[in-house]
Amino acid sequence: MITIFLITIVLILLYLAYPFWLSAYSRSEPGNEKGINEITSVSVILLSYNGKEYLKEKIDFLVEELSCFQNYELIIVDDNSTDGSWEILDTIQETPEIKILSKPEHKGIPHSMNMGVNNAKYENIVFCDQRQKLAHNILLRVVDSLKYQNVGAVSGCISHLDNSKNYSFIRKHENFIKAIESRAGSLIGVYGPLYAIKKSCYSVIPEYIILDDLYLSLRILKTKQIELREDCQIIDENSSILYDYKRARRYLSGFLQIMKEKTIISDLNNQQKVMLMWHKYLRLLIPFFLFLCYISSGIMMLYGIEYMILFSILTILGVLSFLPIRYRIHFRLKNLIRLNILYFIALSDIMINDILFHRPAAANHFMNMPGAGNVN
Fold first, then answer.
1. CA 256/CA 228 separation, integer angstroms
2. DSSP string spanning 25-74?
3. E-assigned strands of the chain?
4. pLDDT of residue 205
5. Global pTM?
6. Nearest to 159 by CA among 228, 227, 232
7. Whether the predicted pLDDT of 181 surpasses 70
8. What gap in Å lies between CA 113 and CA 136, rounded to an integer?
9. Which of 310, 313, 338 is nearest to 323 (CA)?
10. Which of 118, 314, 331, 372 registers the highest number of CB atoms within 10 A of its CB?
11. Local confidence band at 98 (pLDDT 50, 70, 90 cut-offs)
């Protein structure tokens, strides 16, 4: 047990050391470029699928935000919604600045993104999901850095406070990491709910890709920088609602899928490869070793009351982390514990079914999952 415990501690400390390693890097500031014109034209692509309850409010918000630009268009790509979303879209079909693309069958997020970009008139593009609430003036801020030649994409920032003002330790830590990555010039993965990109930097995304935002980010990093705008706040739902088993398995399957895209990894420079492995993949080992620590403490409780106490505490914390939100039991590490348990179960599932029995999850199994950004 001591060996497993020590390995787990080393992995956690190594993961926590990532920002200290990043701090050693600096980038060339885009602000050194002269004679740069402000962004005056933008195409916003709103990805719509079975989000009728959010759709009208999001469209009204985006139209108001876009009015600040000299030239703009709102492209709504509806992925064959079945919840009556078309009742809302039908009322705005004649609006000059709004273009509605309705697909005859559901083909997933990458297909919608490719379709939207093909129909975009302007070089500066903003991808937007329908569920999250956005800060005012977010479009002006998120496209601002695209005026610099060495910037290919700019990511908004998911707030560590959800729409009910609940605090997320995971999101706070992730924002801290991404802010340091951004200052190092190589943000590894934009936040999916809202980000800006130059059309000339866009790479067609294969329809089977699960983590479209990570795939596209890694493609951009071959030639351009990606920035995080911390003042472009995205407000999402409570983390306890979002962190479920299907989502955890989706992310793990997506990470493994990216690893198989050999050209993506080979196109990264050495620093970016280290960042990708350290930030995204190292932490996937932690849930496995945490589970081994838990099992070991259960076995060792036969030899001492201190192990029985440890095992009992870990069990109680695990149970509490899965209690429904209506019980109003909140503690700072609740979602962190919940997420590690879900990742361990999902990783075990993938190893047994996809690797051992060679039954890979079909890409369309995840097509109904909203592209709500990485839990990363």
1. 25
2. -----GGG--SPPPP-EEEEEEEESS-HHHHHHHHHHHHHHHTTSSEEEE
3. 41-48, 71-78, 98-102, 124-128, 133-134, 151-158, 194-198, 225-235
4. 96
5. 0.89
6. 232
7. yes
8. 24
9. 338
10. 372
11. very high
